[in-house]
Amino acid sequence: MAVFADTPGARIARGVCRWLSDAGAAPLTEFSPAPGLRVDVAALGPDGTVSVIECKSSLADFRADLKWRGYLPWCDAFWFAVGPEFPVEALPQDEGVLVADDWGAEPLRLPTPRPLAPARRRALTLRIGRAAALRLRRFEDPGAPPSV
Amino acid sequence: MAVFADTPGARIARGVCRWLSDAGAAPLTEFSPAPGLRVDVAALGPDGTVSVIECKSSLADFRADLKWRGYLPWCDAFWFAVGPEFPVEALPQDEGVLVADDWGAEPLRLPTPRPLAPARRRALTLRIGRAAALRLRRFEDPGAPPSV
After folding, report:
1. Is residue A110 part of a domain?
2. Rounded (10°) angle between helices B118-140 and A118-140
3. Which pLDDT tens digit goes with each residue over B22-34?
4. Does B2 touch chain A (CB under 8 A)?
5. What single Pfam family name could you report for this chain, choosing any that match (chains A, B) (predicted)?
6. Higher-confidence position of B148 and B84
């Protein structure tokens, strides 16, 4: 899902990020926790908790996703975020559910906590922080040559 | 120093950030490591090292800064960054020196390493990462209402 495009998934991601920010978490879209993996939204909570949120614009979108279980080892809390029309009963019971629109989101079901090992949480925190800082530079210094 | 303005200090900060990015570090300008403190540039290295760089556009600017020693407990490595005309012999011998311009920077003297305690480095990494992610949101979603 390309979260910068004006697609249903992108609008869900926008609402999710607004909710996360309001809730005190710092969201980063399109984050790669490890080579070959890319989650729609990752977030660093004030207490250091790492959350991952996958945005599903439709049941077909959810069913086509064969990768989401691979994200579970990379977060303390995993959520699906769906639009208001989504049949939420189709979603796995153990994962969190957010109902989102363009403007925000609301939690419908809390995720089962699966605390990360401290070493992995530290590595992920560094990786999220570095990715956010480097992406921010592209906005703050658009004339910079690409880093080698 | 306001690093977004087109001041001599801001131009030094821009060169410093380009050098940091090229060197594999992820820079964040105007970072507050603790209440009441604000450094010109903080950076997360690939290995998690936290660097702080203070930009000094002139000897007067350096001499007017009574706060820089207060930043030492908040980084593994501390650098001054100055323009090519700066009399570098006026800078303290134990700190790193970068000579910077609008386009980049070069290390003139390496800083004395002062490794942070792991708990503080973890807390700083989270704080830098959250600050970068939240600042990035302002660019990626400029229409978002300010978080409460």
Report:
1. yes
2. 40
3. 999 999 999 999 9
4. no
5. MmcB-like
6. B84
Alpha-carbon torsion angle A41, A44, A48, A54, nearest 10: -10
- Averages of pLDDT over runs of 10 residues in chain A (148 residues) are 69 97 97 97 98 97 95 98 97 96 95 96 98 97 81
Based on the structure, what is the number of domains in chain A? 1
Question: What local confidence, expressed as pLDDT, does residue A26 receive?
Answer: 98
What sign does the CA torsion over A77, A78, A80, A81 have? positive
Chain-chain contact of B28 with A133 (C-beta, under 8 angstroms): yes
Q: Is residue A145 part of a domain?
A: no
Q: Using an 8 Å CB-CB cutoff, list chain A residues near B76.
A: none
Q: Minimal Cα–Cα distance from A71 to chain B, Å?
A: 20
Q: Which residue of A has its CA nearest to B18?
A: A144
In a domain, A83, yes or no: yes
Q: Around Cβ B24, how many Cβ atoms within 10 Å?
A: 14
Q: Is A6 on the interface with B (CB under 8 A)?
A: no
Domain of B82 in residue numbering reads as 8-140
Q: Write down the pLDDT at residue B2.
A: 45
Token digits of residue B97: 């020196």
B91: in domain: yes
Look at B135 and A136 and tell me if their CB atoms are within 8 Å: yes
How far apart are alpha carbons B137 and A102 in whole angstroms?
Answer: 15
Q: Which amino acid is at A131?
A: A
Q: Can you give the pTM of this predicted structure? A: 0.94
Q: What residue ranges in chain A does DSSP mark as E strands?
A: 26-31, 39-44, 50-56, 77-82, 96-100, 105-109
